[in-house]
Specification:
The chain is mainly β and 96 residues long. It is 5% helix and 56% strand. The protein is built from 1 helix and 10 strands; from the N terminus they run βββαβββββββ. Strands 1-9-10-5-4-6 form a 6-stranded antiparallel β-sheet, with no helix packed on it. The protein has a 4-stranded antiparallel β-sheet with strand order 2-3-8-7. A hairpin with a 2-residue loop joins strand 9 and strand 10. The radius of gyration is 13 Å and the shape is globular. The mean pLDDT is 93.
Length: 96
Amino acid sequence: MCNQTVVKQTSRNLRIWIEGKNLSDNGFTWKTNYTRTIENGVITMALDTAGKLRVSGRNRKGVEQSIIDISLSSGKGFKAGQVVNVTYSQGLITIK
């Protein structure tokens, strides 16, 4: 499955925000650990029980919603306003 999102400029740095059913359907549920690499304008996130990052979340009307908020301090090949493709597969998310 592939979706698009926009790289946003915040007061501190760039931000990519993904949330919802696509995350949880592919194993990225609230409080699950994962690893992230950023190389050549491509972000790869993989489920990893030893990963130092953890899926965030919230509870809305009794339904848990997974959230991944990526802060890009030096741009890392991304620009504000850029539309990026988010590709989901079981245990793996790619953003480019």
